[in-house]
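Write out this protein's structure.
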Amino acid sequence: MRRYKAALLACIMMTTIFIGSLVFFRNTTAFSPKKIEGIEDVAQSFEDFKIPTDVKVVGIGEITHGNREFQTVKKDVLEKVVKDGDGRCICFEMTVGEGAMFNDAIHDKDADLVKLVGKQSYPLYDTEEIVALLEWMREYNEGLPYEESLMFYGVDMQGSIFTLDYLQNLCREGCNLITEEEKETILSIDKENRDQIVSNRDFFLKMSERLSAIDDLRCEQLAMVPKDIVLGIDSPDYDRDQSGYQDYRDLKMAENLMDYSEIEGKRGYSQVVITAHSGHERIGRDSEITGKDWKNMGYHINRLTEGSYFCIGTDYYEGYVNIHTAGTYDDEYERADHYFCSEDPLAYQAKYFENGTYCLDFSKVTDENSIVYKDVHGAIFTGGVGEGYAPSWELASGKGKTVPAEEYDAMIYFYEVTPIHTIHY
């Protein structure tokens, strides 16, 4: 019996040491990359970084959803496009209806923006950084005609029930773009009853077609709302076909973006900004190294624009990320900060630059013999943290291998990042 107890104790000790070693090597900076000679010759500050003015779509990815720096950079990129380019809108990985709700708020001086961010379905946008973006957009819009103002759009068809909720609120407020007959039908629908929503598919489709046929900016924008409900109805069932749902979702996000690009073009602006997660390859153009068998949103954007897509990625070397805890919902919803180290050798270089950040335009990295060129065009570790944290992440998550130049045209690197703090959750 003593032998068995001794063996069991030894087994437990070895397992503990093994797991502890994995966690140590995952978190330690003892084996950090070294400074790359010549990095100063190709690196730029964000102020000096140039975004091409002849591309239709400018993408900005966030390698994690849970860090302040990646939310702040959305505003920075939009400001740069507004100032130096030809764009006046930003599109989020957010439902069409919620994007429309945000758009209404930045055109309403009395809207409570802090309260607003707590109403939408993505807690990760319930932050001071997103409020700051909306405040800047609203201040920009003061005194401008609606046709010349900044716009906020959502492109995601996931969660179209929130889009229906927005549409019903418009009806209650007496929106004059919706007919009385349409209001009656919309308000009669129980948003919790999917069968009833599905049975009204043709109604929403006809409503969208009616609005989009009117040569009016507000009507064309509103037409996207019932259309989004139709997309939600037509989507594959996530529980039965996750792969099919993923393919459909990414394609429809890209197509929604193109619809908004067309709307923006009619009012005289040739560029749109799209922001989404890059850790699970939503914004990137699609790297062969990922080995996935589905085409992401960035792939479709690049295809639909015939290559007129400038994609900016982001990455960090180390820091705490605020993540939703897997399995906690509703009243038990929980977020917590978790430390990760991406081991990205290019992100590590940010420690040598002012404020711990720099930009790298891959088109300017031309010396094929340089370490920077080899890293940019080779498979290197990069970050990649999503939502739904589980203890198993401590062993391996927080990084993956990517060929940066295959995914992006440029990168914004941070040495250390700080977690977001949600306002209402």
